[in-house]
Design a protein that fits this description.
heterotrimer, A alpha/beta (about 120), B mainly alpha (about 60), C mainly alpha (about 900), A: about 120 residues, alpha/beta, Rossmann fold, 5 helices, about 20% strand, B: about 60 residues, mainly alpha, two-stranded antiparallel ribbon, 2 helices, 2 strands, about 60% helix, elongated
Chain lengths: ~120, ~60, ~900
């Protein structure tokens, strides 16, 4: 069965591109525009992997990540954090909060796809 | 006051010694003659010279 | 013959210019000036009646010298205080009192006159003997030979001792000469002694045996224990005299060059005494034996015996010896006395009474010397007079002892001064006067009486017939010889008054200071301690002037130069006029005119301030200083704290700025990266898959383009912002018509409004004054505001109005929209960088978030303000003002 990927980002254009990308790869895709929507969508959509932007209104990517990791039901959820901020502190924070991977924008679509596949295969 | 100068103190001691030595009543002791010379004469000069000699030793002695 | 000696002494005197020829031996031998013609002639005379009792005069000095510590202290004090005579010493100790100085001088002179008379008598007698009765033909009848002798001696003394003034009152040549003549004396005496003992008799043994065999003479060989009191008294007396005779003090203390010389003197001088006295008794006995049955003068045995045997050369030698002994004594004694008279008696009186006359004389050294010469003549004259008046009645020794008893009166004041701090001037004066009075009454006056010059009544029957006041048996104390009697009473009164009055009186400040310095002289190293007790102001000129006047200019300059060198200065002119300098000047002066007079002179020059008041002022000063200082400290502390606080604040601010900078950068980064992400992703996807259908492709490309534009805009604005903020933006200021700009902006954005179907109207005043601004920038602001407005108003029903109004001091532009409005918080926030108003979720604004901040910067650059007035649901009004140019 196809893996489900949830895309969370407040930039519509990025969402568009990511959605297209993932769909093309054959994943089932859902989108969310902010942190709250993301959490809601997780509950309803039950994705296997989440592409999570950090800089978002309402709830930041970190908060979402934290919340999800606190939820034992979502232990199997893979979280890939996306951000334009590439500072080490951010990365460390993300990892510390339980993200499985951290990708800086702009990213290479090829690489992103490869990574997602790799993670889902495991 | 006199300094704690041993030399001076010794000299002063000699002086204190000399007073009774060269005055009565001690002086009334030598009487008559000694070796042909008047005893007082001999005694006086002898004691006196001795005192001076001792003073010389003390005064010129090692510093 | 006398000339020979004069020449010899003169030659020695020459040697004092420059190197010091005073060695320890010379110093020790010079003390033998103690042996005068008294020793030469008188001792023998005394021995004929008193046996060995004559020795007491020499035992005393021997013992006194053994107490060298006392003498050393005396010398030390004299050197440090620059004292030049006994009068100086005593006066200085008791507060530099001129009264004491004068008193001591008078006592000394009166006391020593008999002694000088003694010398004259001896010389006269010896001359008489030598010339064997031819003397009367020698000189014209009207001249008394003794007077001639006195005159000659005066001349010698003047030549010897008053050639110049020495600050230290040292006469090295004289000392050397005296030492020389001491040797001559010894040689002569021993020679005649040997002659008589071995030449005329068979040696000591035979002499003594023959004496023992002669009735009436054998007692001379023994000591009479009944005379014990006299013995002790004489030892004491001579022990005091060895120091307190003016000439002795001069030689021992003043002329002392090196304290260590005293060590030699302690035994060498007594040795001398032993040697010179060995033959006295033999000589006496020999004379007695030889001249049995004949009238004789025992005093001249030393001459008559050789003459009797025809040894004329020997006799001549003896005469010379005796003469030199006498002259030595007279010279030294008179010089010492004349110094005292001049410094301690005449000068103070002169300075006090005819102050102006003396004070204005340029060079007083001549006057000083003159005074001394007169004094010398006067003393010798007095000696002669006494010789005539009383000399006949006594044997030589008797006269001498009278002098001894006189100078013994100095002992309590001196010794007390050296060892007892409580000794006061009043006590010293009382003691001296009392002792002197007793001496006068019990010795001097009786001596006149016995010679028949005054009535003997008071001697035999007591003053006013009161038996208890018999001159030589006061209060019934009989049984003592007159010397002992006098000594006992005079010292009793002296010491009693001295101690009693001292205990009942209080020393003044100067006295106390001096007492300190005297008694503790060994504890005060150097001269620095004196400066403490002096306070005053003096001018260098005046002090130097004093020195010039009293020391003579060249000598004064010399001393000043030495002193300056001692203090490490090249030029004495640069000496600081402090207490030390004043002390130096005083010391120098005291060498010339005595310490009491020196003090007066210096005090008149230096205005001394009250010690007490000064101290109080000092203390007050200190206290205020301390208070002021602590206040300063407090103030500084406050400052310090304030500064620290400021620093901390600044630090905080810096840190925050740093943080903000970091935030800014990361935000910018984020903002730039976001559109880039889309561009890259979409581009890649388009690139990867050429199969993407055309719709998607078109869409994607459109997004790419948009994002690229967005990116460009962002970059531009960021750079703009950076320029604006750093002040590196370029401004073209010109006269600008605000209305025109507004209309233009409205026109250019008209399409945008139409697209969204938002109404745009302008309400522009007719005549808007011109402002000075940058046209493009203002346009930028307008466009920003308008585009914001159109962004946020709802499409279709949106209305935007622009108003331009000319105020008093500025042009006011308003952009009013009926959009959703802003919360008060948002009103502030939107002006922050990268912040945007509105619900960013529902419609992601196209803006960069930098428009408003930039606009504000621009407006504020022109001196205006940009703000917004809004409330949620009531639209928003953006207002900015541009100030009018200032009118001249």
């Amino acid at each position: 069965m196809a893996k489900k990927i949830l895309i969370v980002d407040d930039e519509p254009n990025i969402v568009i591109s990511l959605e297209f990308l993932m769909k093309k790869e054959g994943f089932e895709v859902a989108v969310a525009g902010d942190g709250e929507e993301a959490l809601a969508k997780v509950a309803t959509f039950g994705p296997d992997l989440m592409l999570l932007d950090v800089m978002m209104p309402k709830k930041s990517g970190f908060e979402v990540c934290e919340a999800l990791r606190a939820d034992p039901a979502r232990a199997g959820l893979l979280i890939v954090m996306l951000t334009a901020k590439g500072r080490d502190t951010e990365v460390a924070k993300g990892i510390a909060l339980g993200a499985d991977a951290y990708v800086t924008k702009p990213f290479s679509t090829k690489e992103l796809v490869a990574k997602v596949k790799e993670m889902l295969a495991a | 006051m006199k300094r704690a100068n041993p030399r001076r103190q010794r000299l002063a001691a000699l002086g204190l010694l000399g007073i009774p030595l060269l005055s009565f009543p001690l002086l009334s002791l030598p009487q008559g003659e000694w070796a042909g010379l008047p005893a007082p004469f001999l005694y006086l000069f002898g004691a006196w010279a001795l005192l001076v000699g001792l003073a010389a030793v003390v005064a010129e002695g090692r510093d | 013959m006398g000339l020979l000696f004069a020449v010899a002494r003169f030659g020695d005197a020459r040697a004092d210019a420059g190197r010091s020829i005073i060695t320890a031996n010379v110093y020790a031998l010079s003390l033998a000036v103690y042996c005068t013609s008294w020793t030469f002639y008188g001792s023998v005379g005394r021995a004929t009646s008193g046996g060995l009792s004559f020795l007491t005069i020499y035992i005393g000095p021997t013992l006194m010298l053994l107490f060298a510590g006392v003498i050393v202290k005396m010398i030390r004090i004299a050197k440090t205080q620059r004292l030049t005579s006994i009068a100086d010493f005593i006066a200085a100790r008791y507060g530099k009192s001129q009264l004491l100085a004068g008193l001591v001088t008078v006592i000394a002179v009166i006391g020593v006159v008999p002694y000088i008379a003694l010398q004259l008598k001896a010389v006269a007698a010896s001359l008489d003997v030598l010339l064997g009765g031819q003397g009367t033909n020698f000189l014209p009848a009207m001249f008394d030979s003794t007077l001639v002798i006195a005159a000659l001696l005066a001349l010698f003394t003047i030549l010897f001792g008053t050639r110049h003034l020495d600050a230290t009152e040292r006469h090295e040549g004289m000392v050397a000469a005296v030492a020389f003549e001491s040797v001559v004396k010894l040689i002569a005496f021993v020679a005649v002694g040997l002659f008589v003992t071995y030449g005329m008799f068979g040696g000591f043994a035979e002499l003594f045996q023959r004496t023992a065999a002669t009735p009436g003479l054998e007692r001379l060989l023994q000591l009479d224990s009944a005379k014990a009191g006299t013995w002790a008294a004489l030892i004491l007396l001579s022990g005091l005299a060895i120091i307190f005779l003016p000439r002795q003090f001069q030689i021992i203390v003043v002329e002392n060059v090196d304290e260590s010389h005293l060590r030699r003197a302690v035994w060498l001088f007594p040795l001398y005494l032993v040697l010179i006295n060995i033959f006295v008794l033999p000589l006496a006995l020999g004379g007695l034996l030889h001249f049995q049955g004949q009238p004789f003068n025992p005093d001249t045995f030393v001459l008559t015996l050789p003459l009797a045997r025809g040894a004329e050369t020997l006799a001549l030698l003896v005469f010379i010896g005796g003469l030199s002994a006498a002259t030595g004594m007279v010279i030294v004694e008179t010089i010492a006395l004349s110094t005292m008279i001049c410094n301690d008696l005449v000068m103070p009186w002169l300075l006090r009474s005819r102050r102006f006359g003396v004070a204005e004389r340029e060079d007083l050294s001549g006057l000083l010397l003159g005074i001394r010469r007169v004094a010398i003549v006067a003393i010798l004259l007095l000696g002669y007079i006494y010789f005539r008046a009383a000399g006949e009645a006594y044997a030589l020794v008797g006269i001498g002892l009278i002098s001894f008893a006189a100078v013994a009166q100095f002992a309590p004041a001196m010794f007390g001064g050296m060892y007892w701090k409580q000794g006061t001037r009043a006590g010293a004066v009382a003691g001296l006067l009392g002792g002197f009075a007793v001496w006068l009454y019990t010795l001097l006056l009786p001596s006149f009486a016995k010679s028949g010059w005054i009535d003997k009544g008071f001697v035999e029957h007591g003053l006013f017939g009161i038996g208890a006041l018999k001159a030589q048996a006061l209060f019934g104390l009989a049984g003592l010889d007159e010397i002992s009697h006098s000594l006992w009473w005079s010292l009793f009164v002296n010491i009693g008054l001295y101690v009693g009055v001292s205990l009942w009186s209080r020393p003044d400040a100067v006295e106390a200071g001096q007492a300190e310095r005297f008694v503790d002289v060994f504890k005060h190293a150097g001269r620095g301690t004196d400066a403490r007790l002096w306070r005053g102001t003096a001018s260098a000129e005046e002090l130097v002037g004093l020195l010039d006047r009293f020391l003579g200019r060249p000598r004064a300059r010399q001393q000043l130069a030495n002193y300056a060198a001692g203090r490490g200065l090249d030029d004495w002119r640069s000496l600081p006029v402090d207490a030390e300098f004043v002390r130096f000047a005083e010391t120098q002066l005291s060498g010339a005119i005595g310490s009491a007079s020196a003090r007066v002179m210096v005090a008149s020059v230096a205005k001394e301030e009250d010690l007490g008041l000064d101290e109080v002022l000092d203390i007050l000063d200190e206290a205020t200083q301390v208070r002021a200082y602590s206040r300063e400290l407090e103030a500084k502390q406050h400052e310090l704290e304030a500064a620290t606080a400021e620093l901390r604040e600044a630090n905080e601010r810096l840190r925050e700025l740093d943080r903000m900078k970091d935030d800014f950068i990361s935000t910018v980064t984020h903002e730039l990266r976001t559109p880039l992400t889309s561009i890259r992703a979409l581009s890649e996807m388009l690139h990867e898959d050429p199969e993407i259908d055309i719709d998607d492709r078109t869409r994607f490309l459109g997004i790419i383009v948009n994002e690229a534009e967005r990116l460009t805009r962002l970059i531009n604005q960021i750079l703009d912002m950076a320029k604006l903020e750093s002040g590196r933006a370029e401004w073209t200021t010109s006269e600008v018509d605000v209305a025109a700009i507004v209309r233009e902006a409205m026109d250019s954005l008209g399409q945008l409004f139409r697209d969204k179907n938002v109404a745009l109207e302008g309400e522009i005043a007719d005549s808007v004054p011109v402002v000075l601004a940058d046209r493009d920038r203002l346009t930028q602001v307008m466009i920003n505001l308008l585009s914001n407005a159109v962004k946020f108003v709802p499409g279709g029903s949106g209305r935007v109005k622009v108003r331009v109004v000319a105020g008093e001091r500025a042009v006011r532009v308003e952009v009013i929209d009926n959009g959703p409005g802003l919360t008060p918080e948002e009103c502030v926030v939107i002006f922050e960088k990268f912040r945007q108003g509105g619900n960013t979720m529902t419609d992601k604004p196209q803006g960069t978030g930098l428009g408003l901040p930039i606009s504000r910067q621009i407006v504020e650059y022109f001196g205006g303000n940009l703000w917004v007035e809004s409330s949620p649901g009531a639209g928003a009004t953006f207002v900015f003002t541009v100030p009018l140019p200032a009118h001249e």
